[in-house]
Amino acid sequence: MKGTVHVAGTGIISAIGNSVSETLAAFQAQCSGIGHITLFDSVHKNVLPVGEVKLSNEGLCDTLWMPAHTSRTALLGIYAAREAVKASKVDIKRWRTGVISATTVGGMDRTENFFIDYLADNTKGKLRNVLHHECGMSTELIADDLGVNGFISTINTACSSSVNAIALGSRLIKHNQLDVVIAGGTDALSKFTLNGFNSLMILDQQPCRPFDASRAGLNLGEGAAFVVLVSDRVLEAEKIKASAYVNGYANTNDAYHQTASSPEGRGSFGAMQKALAMSGLSPQDIDYINLHGTGTLNNDLSEGTAIARLYGDRYPRLSSTKAFTGHTLGASGGIEAVFSVMAIREQCVFPNLRFETPIPEVGIVPQKSFESGITVNHVMSNSFGFGGNCSSIIFSKN
Description:
By secondary structure, the protein is of the alpha/beta class. About 35% of the residues lie in helices and about 20% in strands. The chain is built from twelve helices and 14 strands. It has helices spanning about 20-30, 55-65, 70-90, 110-120, 135-145, 160-175, 190-200, 230-235, 265-280, 295-310, 320-325, 330-345; strands at about 5-15, 35, 50, 95-100, 150-155, 180-185, 225-230, 245-255, 290, 315-320, 350, 370, 380-385, 390-395. The strands form three sheets. It has a ten-stranded mixed β-sheet with strand order 5-4-6-7-1-8-14-13-9-10, sandwiched between helices. The chain is globular, with a radius of gyration of 20 Å. The mean pLDDT is about 95.
């Protein structure tokens, strides 16, 4: 493998903004996107807070000129992918271009609408509502919208999905299989995921408090984010500038439990250590870590234990941004990859909202406020999913 994989463009939509610029403004104002459920009816509507995108399906369809039966997951993905490609200023049809998108929810939001009518009367229900059910269909729709018909792939490794999508895209470019890859992820809120996570008893009835001793669970969120990855050749030929490049990544599995992370953070430590080894950096070279930091008792202690093992008490600035967006599942790694590139481009770090008291076992104190005007050359972003699937990725300044 040779050459550098540059990040030429970024696009994002989440609970704190419908663009990269809106997202940065929300961070600067320390304005969380966590609130009540408004997108669908649920017995948890005024009980479980979530991170909703502030656009309805109708609003997204009108903005994107998409059919009304398109899944919300696909709509969010198309929205973010369009921004990323536009920001990159790359003529993607000129090059060998691929789309690699991650998702866990797929078109579940439309399928739920079908079954409401079907279960009441099995001769009822609109089949167009299940047309986009499978996870891969959201990727197909994104690729079709962008006019990409070469390499198209969908990744579902739970909450590490988007990082693995970016890692795969980077490998394909380094191996000269593709010139440009639009990589990231998208997931929408649905009753299925809300009820499923609630059954695991890991949802907080208050806005979440990642890495705080009083943490009581996560808040689900939704959104999409993509990065446009390009080779050296594309960067030079298109005469564009990139603020960051992909410097290292790793995927491990601690094989501990179906949903819980190992108490000693075995997979988390391995992912960070191997990503550092690939980049050639030492732990002390990292200027900021975007923590996976879901706010659950198990995850934060496990990740914190791995951080303490890697750094001791000399860790860099770090924070979980899920207190802003909620946990966006398969999209989280893409969303936080965009945050990582933003931190490098803007030379800033983001706050860990609602943090008050360190977890006693690890004593880690995350970033408490938005801070700019600092040196941010290397950012590590962690995404650790169900099934022990742990991924870390490092972005560095060009």
